[in-house]
Write a structure and sequence with these properties.
With about 500 residues, this protein is mostly helical. The strands form three sheets. A two-stranded antiparallel ribbon has the order 1-2. It has a two-stranded antiparallel sheet with strand order 3-4. Helix 3 runs antiparallel to helix 10, helix 5 packs parallel to helix 9 and helix 13 runs antiparallel to helix 14. It is globular.
């Protein structure tokens, strides 16, 4: 335990030391089509010159009237979406993963998911939200919201506002912060599936502190942070406002709800872990079949329901784009289930419950970056392709890589996330039924079908994917190495054979 506490302290000190360093220089690019999934400080939070004392009293009523009032419907929808994403992690992901491992490791997986999620929520409050969603540089945010300071405005006697994607429309920033906290938590929890059944509990938590700090937060900032639509008040400030956004936002990368930030990011971390930690004892020689496909199916169903908050909630408003993301989350997932079952029937002569559940997750992953960015037809096609692609990912690709990715994190989340990110660039096109992207935030006008280039957008998407893979890969190697040198990553062979439920937690999921 002392080693665990020391490692957690090391991770936190490194996070504050490095992420709090000075801004990095970068070449600014021209404004690009925007990606719908971000937050920005409300313009009212920007510094302003104080009025002269005589004018202050006269200006006060006008200023008070000018403070934007959050829309209650949007606020209610975002609070519900936050609860749905929480349900995705605990119990959804926990049960999905738990059913896939052997019975002697059931509780260890539930613990790793639940405690990882809880740990990240606390870190999000301390520094995560600030470094992800405040102005800093193109790679990382600043310290304006450490410990959530400023969320409550004492002077105004109200909560600070967060921008949505419509001019003049806001939600309370505290609601946005809570919503994004669940994204961070489930992203880290996803990694657990890649090295399940063989890793020290303390090592899991120490790794999560480091990876969350140096991989999740920068990627989230690069993809999702911008200054908000109201900051684009005139054409004269466009370049300045865009230069303050995250790097991938500046590029014009489209990621509606987390194809890069969540799925590719976590999948690469999981794959690196599977390689560095090594294969389970008896892997390839002993049966390691799932102990409860019933629980796995229940977990997959909870994930599907919760994913509506994940995807539709990323619109930040209860509007047409939320509805588009909602129906795409239904249709793409259903298409992927059918595709996976069809693929299994062609390969093995019969479809399986495990395959249907895996297909559902594959469809959910692939539609995540595209949910509000593609038409319904495009969503169905993405889901159908994802079912076949991820089936190959957990069979053919897994054998090619040779890693013991216990619960196929890379095969589903990596392959599905990459596929979805790239196809977003294709089906976002108005010519293929997509809604296109905002080309001018001053007038909030969309890129026309004639001006939209599928090749150009797919290239931007590919660059975003590659940057995420490299960034997460490098951070993951360093984080695993640090944990291995301080705590040690793996339990002993005797403890692994006994099962982590007993050896790590002193309890058993089943009796008798």
């Amino acid at each position: 335990m002392k080693k665990l506490l020391a490692s957690l302290a090391l991770g936190l000190s490194l996070g504050f030391g490095l992420l709090g360093a000075g801004s990095l220089a970068l070449a600014q690019t021209a404004p690009a089509a925007a990606a719908p999934a971000a937050e920005a400080k409300a313009p009212a939070a920007a510094p302003a010159a104080a009025p002269a004392p005589a004018a202050a009293a006269e200006a006060a009523p006008a200023e008070a009237a000018a403070v934007p009032v959050p829309n209650k419907g949007d606020t209610g929808w975002m609070m519900l979406s936050t609860l749905l994403v929480l349900m995705m992690a605990v119990p959804g992901l926990a049960l999905f993963y738990g059913g896939l491992v052997r019975s002697k490791n059931m509780l260890s997986v539930l613990m790793q998911v639940m405690v990882t999620f809880s740990l990240i929520l606390v870190l999000w409050f301390i520094y995560g939200y600030s470094f992800a969603f405040t102005e800093g540089n193109a790679f990382i945010g600043g310290t304006d919201r450490l410990f959530m300071k400023g969320i409550w405005d004492n002077a105004a006697g109200t909560f600070a506002n967060a921008a949505t994607f419509s001019k003049g429309v806001y939600i309370p920033e505290v609601v946005f912060a809570a919503f994004q906290a669940t994204f961070a938590g489930i992203t880290c929890a996803l990694i657990v599936g890649a090295f399940a059944e063989r890793v020290k509990f303390s090592a899991v938590l120490a790794f999560m502190v480091l990876w969350f700090t140096f991989s999740y937060l920068p990627i989230a900032h690069m993809v999702w942070f911008w200054m908000g639509p109201d900051a684009y008040a005139s054409k004269e400030v466009v370049d300045e406002m865009t230069s303050k956004a995250g790097l991938l936002w500046q590029w014009g990368a489209l990621d509606f709800a987390g194809g890069t930030v969540v799925h590719i990011n976590a999948a690469v971390a999981g794959l690196v872990g599977a390689f560095m930690i090594g294969k389970r004892v008896g892997y390839g020689r002993e049966s390691m079949a799932p102990h409860s496909l019933t629980l796995t199916m229940v977990g997959a169903a909870l994930l599907w329901v919760g994913w509506f908050g994940f995807n539709a909630g990323s619109a930040l408003e209860a509007n047409g784009f939320a509805a588009l993301a909602f129906i795409n989350t239904m249709m793409a997932t259903a298409a992927a289930v059918i595709a996976w079952c069809l693929g299994e029937a062609l390969m093995r002569g019969k479809a399986s419950m495990l395959g249907a559940a895996s297909g559902a997750v594959a469809g959910l992953v692939a539609i995540t970056p595209a949910a509000g960015n593609v038409g319904i037809g495009g969503g169905v096609i993405i889901g159908f392709i994802a079912g076949f692609a991820c089936l190959w990912g957990v069979n053919g690709l897994k054998k090619l890589l040779g890693a013991d990715d216990s619960l196929d994190v890379f095969g589903v989340h990596g392959v599905g996330g990459i596929l979805g990110a790239l196809l977003t660039g294709v089906f976002n096109s108005p010519a293929l039924g997509g809604p296109s992207a905002v080309g001018d935030w001053v007038t909030v006008s969309m890129v026309t079908a004639d001006a939209y280039s599928i090749a150009a957008q797919v290239w931007i998407q590919a660059k975003a994917v590659l940057l995420t893979i490299v960034w997460s890969g490098v951070v993951s190697v360093a984080a695993y190495k640090i944990v291995d040198m301080t705590i040690g990553l793996r339990v002993s062979e005797e403890e692994e054979r006994e099962g982590l439920d007993i050896s790590s937690h002193g309890e058993s999921a089943y009796h008798g």
